[in-house]
Amino acid sequence: MKSVFTGVALLAVGAMSFLTTSQAHAQTSTKKDQAKIQQTQTSAKKGAKPAASPGWIVIEEDVWAPLRFEPIESLDSIRYHYRRNEEKAAASKIDSAVSWLKLAEGHAQPISKEKLTAAATELKIVAKDMRAGTVADAATMDSALGRAAEALGEWHYYKAKEAYGKNEAQDAGRDLAMAANYMQHAANSAHYQFGADTQNVITDYYNHGWWVGEDVTVDHDKLGKDLQGIEKAISGLAEKLKK
Question: What is the mean predicted confidence (pLDDT) over 150-165?
Fold first, then answer.
């Protein structure tokens, strides 16, 4: 009788030990699951891609922007970081802008090549000084950015004029829109105001240049008149930037 009782007691102890171990494993598993859920939720909040897991659908999208807007966005970024006293970031963006100026220089006609080279050199000096701890004053930065924008605008203008002469209205329209964007950017840097008629042409192309694409019709006659307006803007701005 005693041995039977002892056996039952041992079984009971074993069962309790098994239950205790199982509960411990269950609690550990639950904590691990909760940690995984919390980590996934944290990653999702930060915008990180969650680990492969049932219940998740991962959607990836590509957002496209025309490459021709990259140089002017670089110039805007330089000013943005400069005004926030972020010299390292500004210098990095200057490097990007210089690369675009060099690219344009390699495809430019002689009439606009010299300005592109000079603008790239001026910006490189500003970036070098920044990295050495010498920050350009606002006037120097405005001058450098203004000359770079004006040089790129003039490059696009001559590309537009060449395309117009070949009756390639779509290409001419896109380049003229970019020329207007750069002219406005340069005028802002130089604190320059175009004449009323010229400003109307600049504003028209500046406001609508972002959607000039294959499905937009460009009127050949209007394009010819607008080329004259942009040419006038380039002439007036060039005189201002010489001072």
Answer: 94
